[in-house]
Amino acid sequence: MTPSNAHPIPSPTYPDLLQRILGIFLVAVSAAAFGTLAIFGRYAYAAEMDAITILFLRFSLSALVLLAILRLRRESLPRGRPLLPLIGMGAIGYVGQAFCYLAALNYASSGLVALLLYLYPAFVTVLSVVVLHERMTRLKLLALLLALIGSGLTIGPAGGQLLGILLALGAAGIYSIYIIVGAQVMKQVSAVQSSTVIMASAGVMAGVLMAINGPHWPATVAGWWAVAGIVIVATVLPAVTFFIGLRRVGPTTAAMISTLEPVVTVLLAAWLEAERLQPLTLIGGGLILGAVLLLTQSELRRKVG
Fold first, then answer.
1. Cβ pair 40, 233 in contact under 8 A
2. Where in the sequence is the domain holding 240, given as residue range(s)?
3. Does a structural domain hold residue 159?
4. How far apart are CA 125 and CA 140, in angstroms?
5. At what angle do helices 279-304 and 260-272 cross, to 10 degrees?
6. Is 193 a member of any domain?
7. What is the pTM of this model?
8. Angle at 208 between CA 179 and CA 33, to 5 degrees
9. How many domains does the chain have?
10. What is the per-residue pLDDT across 159-182, written as a single tens digit (0 to 9) for each?
């Protein structure tokens, strides 16, 4: 029996529950869609494209779609102080991360690259402690240890794919810096505004690099379909659904659901490319994803405290 002076915590209303379920579904869709990038990337390579041309088409076409969404939302492009950091995030951070990721697919399996990319939350934690002077808790330390052991197991059986491994680790490292910078910048603009500038500046930088290197357009119709998949399925769709879902479930839940991404990549690679990962690689990948969940739990405790 509840004492007369107590105030029981109200249960979520039915509409609130539906909104949360919808948010979880949308973030899961986002993670699954992001997980297709490695697969579409391999199809693009099979059509005689190179990483720079793929990046140019991905970012420039995605920027056009996001500009249309921005117009429908009646939002303007960001101006003033946030603009320069956003341009840098796109032209340097996103292009560098995406290039390392796509280039890694030339030298290592899709599943291995996807699992190693998910070391970025551990890298973010280390950077937050070193650069932002955040406290290193026992839970974070345990997560970092799991990530270290997991990466060792993941890399161990795949030693013959060394260059791909280094590029995948480079993608995770660049992405962690991207997140640290973006966490500050994106407080001043909306998600769609920031994404539009980032995609557009990344498209311009990739275009410059492509002009220097020479374009490698898709040699087949299937290659253009792969480009369409990269733009719509692996870029715009996951970006939009993640932003909408994030508003309904919050960043902590969204981060936990996003660990579905490398799982989708591994399953698609096994189904479509008959790709098989060694048992130790799968165990290591499981430890890396476990570390991500622990870091997410640590962030939740910090916010509640």
1. yes
2. 34-304
3. yes
4. 8
5. 160
6. yes
7. 0.80
8. 45
9. 1
10. 668 899 899 999 999 988 887 787
